[in-house]
């Protein structure tokens, strides 16, 4: 098949933008008008339809298109929107990308740009209309021969801008594709050393494309730290970051040549003495929380490119940081992180800071979880890849907002509730969930009302409970939207 369209990013102060309600979208969904303000469609009616769709799906997260749209006219309009050749996922996300850029500009300090890939699998009678992600072993037949099964689906590679405190500011780049685009690459690598295959012929080029697009979009390369897991351990990415004047922090999986080329990174780091110990909080497979101590070693090294690419790329001076648990525990894998960055690590404080930044990488895993579990993207019944990527692009806007609400409740709970809720919505929440004690004028902050929303979604708010998560937040917001609508139409039905 083909790769699908790409990227963009924007928003407001410290990720806290004041929503300006439009004629079609009001209340808790008024943010939609701001988020789509920079979208530019071939026909303005397409923009209005996207606004309506986003409003409907935000109020029915996880439901099917017919249930979200409520009637045949709106459902048919939604199907036509996703089938329209004049609409691409880049068009849908353009406004959000611009809003992300504005939110980034309104913040200060380091900006973590987290990249990762996720797969969407679908069951289809005609899988060729979507494409494939991978071939898997389906077991043995009656004769004992192994059967291979091609998984129908799409892949999405996203870059999520996050503050060092974990507040998601929005997406900066998104790329969709199927493995058909890279058909034959695996066979090529069986004949040629993989390090000699040009990066442009590999799927991993997506890491470079997203790095370039987000760096150019945000316009402040020195602030950006591009964070990735072991899949992003790509020498070309390191060189591109240096070329663009931006930074990276990745978990390495390759033992590269170091110093003069007669040794490797691991061999050098094995000789480095432990320089500090850091206590980290860990959770095992059963959810039990405990504390583990990791030993820190770090050093600046001259690292060489792969042998087959030494004529094309220069050697780089990078910082290697290892954090390893002293002994392997019995109930979980040992913590063993090997990080690589172009940022200096001159003290234990610097090392702990980089570890904490890398730990924020988990936010994009949460983003993907909401996309699949919350929006149930893999249950969509649209029949072709180009329609599915447009639907997923719409879902991305919905889940970013849910994720933002969840995290703003933790990072800035004391701001004015009016940045999210209308006066009417605050009155409804106060009526449904009264405050336990009288509050001073202006004392009802955003955190108080977001907790009330979470209670509508099933959050118990006991003293020992952690802050509300994404699931209770999206359930609560959906209920608030329904209750607010009921309060608006009730006077028309029964009188004031």
Automatic annotation (TrEMBL):
This one is known as: Transposase DNA-binding
Native source organism of the sequence: Azospirillum rugosum
Please report the stretch or stretches of sequence annotated as the Transposase Tn5 dimerisation domain: 398-481
Tell me the Pfam families matching this sequence. Answer: Dimer_Tnp_Tn5, Tnp_DNA_bind
Q: Which domain of life is it from?
A: Bacteria
Domain Transposase Tn5-like N-terminal: residue ranges: 29-87
């Amino acid at each position: 098949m083909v790769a699908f369209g790409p990227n963009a990013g924007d928003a407001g102060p410290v990720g806290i933008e004041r929503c300006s309600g439009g004629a079609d979208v009001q209340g808790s969904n008024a943010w939609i008008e701001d988020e789509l303000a920079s979208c530019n469609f071939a026909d303005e009616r397409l923009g209005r339809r996207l606004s309506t769709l986003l409003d409907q799906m935000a109020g029915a997260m996880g439901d099917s298109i017919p249930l979200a749209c409520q009637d045949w006219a709106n459902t048919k309009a939604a199907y036509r929107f996703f089938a329209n050749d004049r609409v691409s996922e880049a068009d849908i996300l353009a406004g959000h990308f611009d809003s992300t850029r504005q939110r980034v500009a309104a913040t200060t300090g380091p900006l973590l740009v987290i990249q990762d890939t996720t797969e969407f699998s679908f069951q289809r009678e005609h899988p060729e209309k979507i494409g494939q992600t991978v071939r898997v072993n389906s077991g043995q037949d009656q004769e004992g021969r192994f059967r291979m099964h091609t998984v129908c689906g799409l892949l999405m590679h996203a870059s999520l801008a996050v503050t060092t405190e974990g507040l998601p500011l929005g997406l900066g780049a998104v790329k969709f594709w199927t493995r058909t685009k890279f058909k034959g690459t695996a066979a090529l690598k069986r004949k040629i050393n993989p390090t000699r295959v040009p990066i442009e012929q590999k799927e991993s080029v997506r890491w470079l494309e997203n790095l370039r697009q987000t760096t150019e979009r945000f316009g402040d390369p020195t602030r950006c730290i591009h964070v990735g897991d072991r899949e992003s351990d790509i020498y070309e990415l390191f060189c591109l970051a240096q070329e663009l004047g931006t930074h990276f922090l990745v978990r390495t999986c390759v033992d590269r040549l170091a110093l003069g080329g007669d040794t490797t990174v691991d061999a050098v780091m094995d000789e480095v003495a432990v320089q500090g110990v850091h206590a980290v909080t860990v959770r095992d497979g059963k959810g039990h929380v405990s504390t583990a101590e990791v030993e820190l070693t770090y050093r600046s090294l001259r690292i060489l490119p792969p042998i087959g690419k030494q004529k094309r790329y220069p050697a780089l001076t990078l910082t290697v940081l290892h954090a390893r648990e002293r002994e392997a525990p019995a109930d979980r894998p040992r913590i063993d992180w090997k990080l690589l960055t172009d940022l200096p690590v001159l003290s234990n404080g610097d090392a702990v800071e980089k570890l904490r930044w890398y730990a924020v990488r988990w936010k994009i895993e949460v983003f993907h979880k909401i996309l699949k579990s919350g929006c149930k993207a893999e249950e969509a019944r649209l029949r072709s890849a180009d329609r599915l990527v447009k639907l997923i692009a719409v879902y991305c806007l919905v889940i970013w907002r849910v994720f933002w609400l969840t995290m703003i409740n933790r990072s800035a709970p004391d701001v004015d509730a009016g940045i999210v809720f209308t006066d009417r919505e605050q009155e409804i929440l106060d009526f449904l969930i009264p405050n336990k004690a009288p509050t001073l004028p202006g004392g009802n902050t955003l955190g108080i009302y977001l907790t009330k929303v979470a209670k509508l979604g099933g959050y118990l708010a006991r003293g020992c409970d952690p802050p509300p998560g994404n699931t209770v937040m999206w359930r609560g917001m959906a209920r608030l939207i329904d209750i607010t609508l009921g309060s608006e139409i009730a006077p028309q039905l029964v009188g004031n």
